[in-house]
Design brief:
This protein has 5 helices and 5 strands; from the N terminus they run ααβββαβααβ. By secondary structure, the chain is of the alpha/beta class. The chain has a 5-stranded mixed beta sheet. Strand 1 and strand 2 form a beta hairpin.
Length: 112
């Protein structure tokens, strides 16, 4: 199966859902960095529910999750706090890390 096939939506207008590789990436990120917190982003018409993990130094990553409940459950399993981004916003360290990377010409994050 090619990349295009994997990225195709199930039907028109339906965002691609979380896959086990998405969850595995989040687990590896949380396990290899210190001070990680999670921020649940709600589903939109174009995007499935996502979980942004932000490390203590501001490095971050975003992956799809099945639902907000699944994101909070994953956080409990990993022993990290998870917040609703609509209620808390993103931490300043995330924006600072992204700005620093842009200045260095290295791009922003690991987005999947």
């Amino acid at each position: 199966m090619g990349l295009r096939d994997r990225m195709r939506r199930d039907k028109p207008g339906t965002p691609r859902r979380a896959q086990s590789a998405d969850v595995q990436h989040l687990e590896e990120f949380a396990g290899s960095r210190r001070g990680v917190e999670g921020f649940v982003e709600p589903e939109t018409l174009n995007t499935a529910t996502t979980l942004v993990l932000v490390a203590g130094d501001g490095e971050w990553t975003r992956r799809r999750v099945e639902s907000p409940k699944a994101a909070f459950t994953l956080g409990q399993r990993l022993g990290i706090p998870v917040y609703d981004v609509a209620a808390t916003g993103y931490p300043a360290r995330m924006r600072e890390w992204t700005a620093k990377r842009r200045e260095q010409g290295k791009g922003s994050s690991t987005i999947g």
